[in-house]
Amino acid sequence: MFENKTGRLIRCPHCFAKDMDVFLLYDDEKDEFYCYKCCFCGDLKKVNEQMQTFLKNKYIVKRYFEKK
């Protein structure tokens, strides 16, 4: 299995929103993560913020449609 240099497997939030499992690569020089499939790049804080926002919105929509 693929692992980046930080030892953590971190999914790209943009690709994950499109139902693709793409893991981010780590750039030591810039101290940031980047995706080789799309144009996303950012530090760990930015990755976590975007992933949490996506998951929150996904499950809010899911709960809305389950009630009806």
Whole-number average pLDDT? 81
The radius of gyration over CA amounts to 14 Å
CA-based shape: elongated
Q: Could you describe the largest sheet, including whether it forms a barrel?
A: 3 strands, antiparallel
Count of the domains: 1
- How large is the share of residues in beta strands? 5-15%
What is the number of E strands? 3
The DSSP helix count reads 2
Regarding quaternary structure, what we see is single chain
Secondary-structure element series: HEEEH
Look at the helices and sheets and give the structural class.
alpha+beta
Which residues form runs of ≥5 with pLDDT under 50?
A: none
The order of strands across the largest sheet is: 1-2-3
How far apart, in Å, are the first and last alpha carbons? 41 Å
Estimate the helix proportion, in percent: 40-55%
How does this structure look, described?
The protein has one domain. Helices cover 43% and strands 12% of the residues. It has two helices and three strands; from the N terminus they run H-E-E-E-H. It has helices spanning 13-17, 44-67; strands spanning 25-27, 32-34, 41-42. The longest helix is centred in the C-terminal third of the chain and has 24 residues, at 44-67. It is elongated and about 50 Å long. The protein starts with 12 loop residues before the first helix and ends with a helix.
